Amino acid sequence: MENVSRDFLQVRRIVYYILGTLEVLLAFRLLLKMLGANPLSGFVSFIYSVSSLFLAPFYGIFRSQTSRGIETTAIFEPSTFIAMIVYALIAYGIVRLIALKFTGEEIK
């Protein structure tokens, strides 16, 4: 039984590590868009291109809001918030399903 719980904990850590990485990526995107970061910058372009793959299912749910300043244009993307919530719920569901498989009962 101890081996099962150790394996479960390892799988759970992996799932939450992947979720954490994805959440940080999406949070960077949200922050950079809201601050009006230059999309031609290498780092900003990298964040936008990688994160757009994960945001594709959520585009078009809500309209993005823009605020034009003197030098930058800030963009608020509600789809990024929705994606962050949905991916967190999916990761939680996967961990619960894995708990059922490893232990045969729910782990809280």
Q: What would you note in describing this structure?
A:
The chain is mainly alpha-helical. It has one domain (2-103). It has three helices and two strands. The protein has a two-stranded antiparallel ribbon with strand order 1-2. A hairpin with a 4-residue loop joins strand 1 and strand 2 (73-76). The longest helix has 33 residues, at 2-34. The radius of gyration is 18 Å and the shape is elongated. The model has no long low-confidence stretch (mean pLDDT 88).
Please tell me the total number of domains.
Answer: 1
Stretches with pLDDT under 50, minimum 5 residues:
none
Form type: elongated
**Average pLDDT score:** 88
- Strand tally is 2
Summarize the structure.
The protein is mostly helical and 108 residues long. The chain is built from three helices and two strands. A two-stranded antiparallel sheet has the order 1-2.
Secondary structure blueprint with pairings:
Elements (H helix, E strand, L loop, with lengths): L1 H33 L7 H14 L9 E4 L4 E4 L1 H26 L5
Antiparallel strand pairs: 1-2
